[in-house]
Write a structure and sequence with these properties.
The chain is an alpha+beta fold. It has two domains: 250 residues, DnaJ domain (Helix Hairpins); 112 residues, HSP40/DNAj peptide-binding domain, CATH 2.60.260. 24% of the residues lie in helices and 27% in strands. It is built from nine helices and 16 strands. It has a four-stranded mixed β-sheet. Helix 2 runs antiparallel to helix 3. The longest helix is centred in the N-terminal third of the chain and has 15 residues.
């Protein structure tokens, strides 16, 4: 297996290069090796290597890990939620393909849809995080406003001017002869891409689009009580608009993970508690840990409780979103356990109890000397 090249060598930058230098180097090389523009049979592998290098060096935490440990994850992992793999397969390669599809400044095909598109991701949280609310830091790729031109697409001193081909209409009309006579049709102007304007000196960083592929890292606030399928909209963090137009939004769909003890039912939390048959008959109190930190839920089990009965405690479930601090219920389903083995004394007590109620029961099995010895040892250990 071939050894990976040094990421700094792949991008052609020094180890102390700043983020702008790294991004410039990436965009410059990507324009020559991307499979959409290169005829090199190895273009896909070269771009993959270039993208891998950029994805590490453009992220401060990954870069620090790489510089210190030789790997982006470091010795204990990256420390934040990386959501590049849950964009429906949309990574930097697809983002950059969209960048090429957007076209460039005057004389070449350009993106006609000015407003940026929304982007969607899924984010998993634990039930405890959903109960308390939390902040999740996520990293993802998008077309972001160009830092050099502040999203205008213009280099210093440049101007937008009316497209000379379509005279600012954004469309050109063609006339063709056919057996039915002359046929006239209109189509977007190939010089301005339907914009009606061209740039005399486009920004070198974004090639006149006003946006560039970029790694983003943002904090997303998860409200207490959120449930699976709930969507959060982060304004302005979707795809950047074309030449300063409005950016789309980032839509985060939350998935709450299954819990080992609690089963969520709306705002209620259900769980199972085990009690003995004497406790079920006489009644008892059972304490369990709640979903909140250091929280205890006390269930009062009434006398005569049957297997499968439920006991509820109010205000110990999930917080209700918009509920003014109120919470759902904790619902305990009771499981009555029957001992598999009885001591001689325990059996005598149960036999007397059964006789007092007129209940028939099986006679005690004959016990060997070994069984009696094991019982004696168990009694000593107990």
């Amino acid at each position: 297996m071939a050894e990976k090249r040094n990421y700094y060598e792949v991008l052609g930058v020094d180890r102390d290069a700043d983020q702008r230098t790294i991004k410039r180097a990436f965009l410059k090389k990507a324009r020559t090796v991307h499979p959409d523009v290169s005829d090199d049979p190895d273009a896909e592998e070269k771009f993959k290597e270039l993208n891998e290098a950029y994805s590490v060096l453009s992220d401060e935490q990954k870069r620090a890990n790489y510089d210190r440990f030789g790997t982006a994850d470091g010795p204990m992992g990256s420390g934040y939620v990386d959501l590049n793999d849950i964009f429906g397969g949309m990574g930097m390669d697809d983002i950059f393909s969209s960048f090429f599809g957007g076209g460039a400044a005057g004389g070449r095909r350009r993106q006609t849809r000015r407003q940026g598109r929304d982007m969607a991701i899924s984010l998993s949280v634990t039930l405890e995080e959903a109960a308390l609310g939390c902040t999740k830091t996520i990293s993802y790729d998008r077309l972001a406003p160009c830092e050099d031109c502040q999203g205008t697409g213009l280099s210093e001193g440049a101007h937008e001017q009316q497209c000379p081909r379509c005279h600012g209409t954004g469309f050109v009309t063609t006339v063709q002869r056919s057996i039915f006579g002359q046929m006239q049709s209109s189509s977007p102007c190939p010089d301005c891409g339907g914009e009606g304007v061209v740039i005399d000196h486009p920004c070198e960083m974004c090639d006149g689009q006003g946006r560039t592929p970029n790694h983003e890292k943002i904090d997303v606030q998860i409200p207490a009580g959120i449930s699976s399928g709930r969507q959060l909209r982060v304004r302005g963090y979707g795809e950047a608009g074309y030449r300063g137009a409005e950016s789309g939004d980032l839509i985060v769909t939350v998935a709450v993970e299954e819990h080992e003890r609690f089963h969520r039912m709306g705002d209620d939390l259900a769980l199972e508690v085990e009690i003995g048959m004497a406790q079920a008959a006489l009644g008892c109190t059972v304490e369990v840990a709640g979903i909140m930190p250091d929280e205890t839920i006390t269930f009062d089990i009434p006398a005569g409780t049957q297997f499968g009965d439920t006991v509820t405690v109010d205000e110990k479930g999930m917080p209700r979103i918009g509920g003014g601090g109120s919470r759902g219920r904790a619902i305990a389903q009771v499981r009555v356990t029957v001992p598999r083995r009885l001591s001689v004394e325990e059996r005598e007590l149960l036999e007397r109890f059964a006789k007092s109620r007129g209940e028939e029961f099986a006679p005690a099995p004959r016990r060997s000397v070994g069984d009696r010895i094991r019982d004696a040892i168990d009694d000593i250990l107990d």
